[in-house]
Design a protein that fits this description.
Number of strands: 16
Strand content: 25-35%
């Protein structure tokens, strides 16, 4: 049995109620029936879309005042990604509910991937399903989505993006502590189209996806990238605004904490509710 499974994403918010309401309306989040991940903090918890009952990662919206939401290329937990067969419909609803469009594409509604920002500035990506194994069915879904032929408007949360100064070191860290494996080939993105998708001229992005097993085929992942044009290091404190922590549900929390230290991280605090640790880039990790 795996020692842990990916289970939590935390977002610090200026207005918890308003941001939670936005994610409910724009991204199909459903109120969670427990708030154990809050570990005594004030906030709200929700299940994200696209997973079976009991397996959906929990999102916690907690009160925060310091710092600012990450820009696309800021070092740290940088954005969330949701898969949809209808990018046009997802983007339209997102903006209608109060989000904004970030990519600089001239024709965003016919592209397979776009970036947006929620009302507090957190970056959210939408993209169509890409074939995991290249089957005929997967290719047909991708083609239909790209051509705008898919009526299905459902969403699925598929990754947290981490911007690292050295993606190989970061992926090595998470590979050591997680029951995980590399997913897909190494990503190497550059050129005018990618710059417009991201909204940063002349950018070159390299990295890899790490599949966090236990919740379904291929997803969710940690998308760990290094940018040729890095932003600012994001404040790592778990009370900061923006995406400020992720969490793992562990069969043996003490063992996972030990593995984190061995891999180059550190333990910040241990309580009766949870263990708060830091990865090798000082990003916050909750263990329960």
């Amino acid at each position: 049995m795996s020692n842990e499974r990916f289970a939590y994403v935390q977002i610090g918010a200026k207005n918890v109620d308003a941001l939670a309401d936005f994610y409910s309306k724009a991204l199909d989040f459903v109120p969670a029936d427990k708030d154990e991940w809050l570990c005594g903090k004030k906030g709200k918890t929700f299940y994200c879309p696209g997973y079976e009952d009991g397996l959906a990662p929990v999102f916690g919206f907690v009160e925060a005042e310091n710092g600012a939401a990450s820009k696309i290329n800021d070092v740290g937990f940088a954005h969330l990604c949701f898969e949809t067969r209808n990018v046009k419909a997802a983007l339209k609803r997102f903006v209608k509910c109060g989000g904004t469009f970030v990519s600089t594409l001239k024709c965003p509604l016919v592209n397979p991937c776009v970036y947006c920002a929620d009302p507090e500035g957190n970056i959210v990506e939408f993209h169509i399903p890409f074939p995991a194994e290249g089957t005929g069915k997967e290719k047909a879904v991708m083609a239909g989505s790209l051509l705008g032929l898919m009526a299905d408007k459902s969403l699925r949360f598929i990754h947290v993006n981490i911007i690292s100064e050295d993606w190989k070191k970061s992926i090595g860290f998470y590979g050591d502590i997680c029951d995980s494996e590399w997913f897909g080939g190494m990503k190497d993105h550059s050129g005018g189209y990618k710059s417009k998708v991201i909204g940063i001229d002349g950018v070159h992005v390299v990295g890899q996806h790490l599949w966090l097993k236990g919740l379904g085929k291929g997803f969710p992942t940690l998308e760990i990238f290094t940018y040729s044009i890095p932003g600012n290091p994001k404040a790592c404190n778990e009370t900061e605004l923006g995406i400020n922590a992720i969490g793992f549900k562990a069969v043996d929390p003490a063992k996972l904490a030990e593995d984190i230290v061995k891999a180059g991280g550190r333990i910040i605090e241990t309580s009766a509710d949870c263990i708060l640790a830091a990865d090798n880039q000082d990003g916050r990790i909750y263990i329960r």
